Amino acid sequence: MAERKPLISGNWKMHHNHFEAIQMVQSLSYQLSSDDYDACDVSVHPPFTNLRSIQTVLESDHIPITLGAQHCHEEQKGAYTGEISPGMLEKLNVGLVIVGHSERREIFGESNSQVNSKVKAIFKHGMTPILCVGETIEEREEGEAERKVQKQLEEGLHGIGRERIASMVVAYEPIWAIGTGVTATPDDAQDMCAKVRQCIKFIAGKDASESVRIQYGGSVKPINAAELMNQADIDGALVGGAALEAESFARIIQYRLQ
Ligand code: PEP
Predict the structure, then answer these.
(1) In this predicted model, what pLDDT tens digit does every residue of 33-89 receive, in sequence order?
(2) Closest CA to 32 of 180, 243, 253
């Protein structure tokens, strides 16, 4: 069975200007050791305006944190005012791009078919997508959670080869747990992450399902990180609020020490 190194990703959303972002990443790197990087991959996903500054800090100080983006457009160039292309991110040595975050889906109306085009464009530019899936509280209460997540995976991964799926990251993020302080119980998170893996097996085969990394996201904090991360099908965390401060993000990355 494939060894899946955990990936802990910090999604800063629309927080931190580039001065604050530089300070944050430097402070984070002072708190992490080579043992931490051996145990787990780390990525930070600052706003677009900070990418160049953070790239410079990571590269000049040889900090082994992957630079990530929160979103991108699916086209390479064109009349799309305000958008950023995958090629632009590639030039900044961005390694991971979040796609289909529930805030993009719910606030900006991104459809599964747009998400699918973005996943393809991200791969085409040599980067790795973190595909977010997850249900609302109403969908969960109506027993529709699994069906929603399955549809997001089937449509989001349509036409993507098995090897690419094997190399990517899926983040299961129940919408009711994002930014609310309410976390899924480790059992519930494990249950849905196992279903995500089953669904990937159906879409792309056993090998891909055993290699794909599945993150849990939704109010992950230093206090609950270890319990979530110790679940069999959870290979990492996508962290919002608790990734904004170096100390709390470092403690999540060091969950194994708790
Ligand atoms: C997120 O934005 O993906 C997220 C999980 O946020 P939070 O950790 O704040 O719930």
Answers:
(1) 999 999 999 999 999 999 999 999 999 999 999 999 999 999 999 999 999 999 999
(2) 253
pLDDT (tens digit per residue) in 130-160: 999 999 999 999 999 999 999 999 999 999 9
What's CA 240's distance to the chain center, in Å? 10
Q: Which of 239, 248, 249, 252 to mutate to test the pocket of ligand 1 (most atoms within 8 A of CB)?
A: 239
pTM, 2 dp: 0.97
Whose tokens are 């931490």? That residue is: 36
| Dist. CA 200 → ligand 1 center (Å) | 23
The ligand 1 atom nearest the CA atom of 13: 2
User: Distances from the Cα of 214 to the Cαs of 104, 160, 193, 203, in angstroms?
Assistant: 20, 17, 7, 15
Backbone angles phi, psi at 70, to 5 degrees: -95, -10
Beta bridge partners of 24: none
Is residue 82 exposed (0-12), middle (13-18) or buried (19+ Cβ within 10 Å)?
exposed
